[in-house]
Amino acid sequence: MQMLDGKLASAAVKKQLQEKVLAHISQGKRAPHLAAILVGSNGASETYVASKVKNCEEIGFESTLIRLDEKVTEVELLAHIEQLNNNEGIDGILVQLPLPKHIKEQAVIEAIHPSKDVDGFHPINAGKLMQGMDCFIPATPYGVVLLLQHYGIETKGKHAVVLGRSNIVGRPMSILLSNASATGNCTVTLCHRNTENLASITQQADILVAAIGIPEFVTADMVKPDAVIIDVGITRVVDTTKKSGFAIKGDVKFNEVAPKASFITPVPGGVGLMTIAGLLTNTLKAYEQNSVTVG
Ligand code: NAD
Q1: Exactly one of 52, 116, 224, 285 is catalytic; which is it?
Q2: Could you count the other beta carbons within 10 Å of the beta carbon of residue 106?
Q3: Structure pTM?
Q4: C-alpha to C-alpha distance for 157 and 188, rounded to whole angstroms
Q5: Which of 85, 92, 131, 262 could bond 118 through an S-S bridge, CB–CB 3.0 to 4.6 Å?
Q6: Does any ligand 1 atom lie closer than 6 A to the CB of residue 208?
Q7: Pick the catalytic residue: 14, 91, 96, 206?
Q8: Candidates 1.50.10.10, 3.40.50.720, 3.40.50.410, 3.40.640.10; CATH matching 139-272
């Protein structure tokens, strides 16, 4: 079994991005700029946004964090997005999800201009992804692709099983793995909460991607020997032995699945770090496409 180390792979991606930023700056251009909006003070969201901002700084991007009160109205939030859409100095915009219940997530996703949609959630980018066109790929499945690339994992002709059909992870993951590309060409089965005889399907997976949000759901008996296991799940579970009071768990029962797998991602230290690598790659792409105005 070999570990798919998100720390190593994301460092390699970030190094390449940093070199590209330096090259742009040496030509007298400004740095790429990501704007993040955080509504309220959800602990996990705070951590994710802080990490995104920190990673921007590490590779020479500028970042702006806009914190809004939990009670902000949808109209006010949309007005902030409109300002960022119209600001030529901003290349990428992300609004950290989930949002408070009184705000319609879909309205927010659709308000971000597709050319600045570095999370890749806008229907225009989702539609382009489906048709194999150039687009912003949602950061988490993009991160998984970058990880597979980094470790040279062959996907062509393999049976990939994806657990979870969300618009941000499972569904785009299934499209990427089935696309005619160097990290695609799989035969893909997409499973969800209504899938029957799930274990009989996961047992056929050469590549198994778990993105359901149920801690340690995938057990050794559900996995084919020598499968590649990608664990996207991140759930906080109460753990009184930790200072924080919680532990982070993936969707895979790591200790029993790892000995059976050929490659496996740890949680934490796997896909989460690659998600940031995907986001930063998208931000540089937005910046380069925005180069007419980058002075
Ligand atoms: P979601 O709640 O939107 O979707 C969960 C999916 O799992 C649904 O499609 C549902 O049908 C499916 N599902 C639920 N129970 C199932 C079962 N018993 N069998 C098969 N399928 C089942 O979640 P999401 O936003 O896609 O996130 C999934 C997980 O990935 C969460 O733990 C989330 O925290 C994590 N996540 C991690 C990253 C990262 O950077 N590593 C990024 C995004 C999400």
Answers
A1: 52
A2: 10
A3: 0.97
A4: 10
A5: 92
A6: no
A7: 96
A8: 3.40.50.720
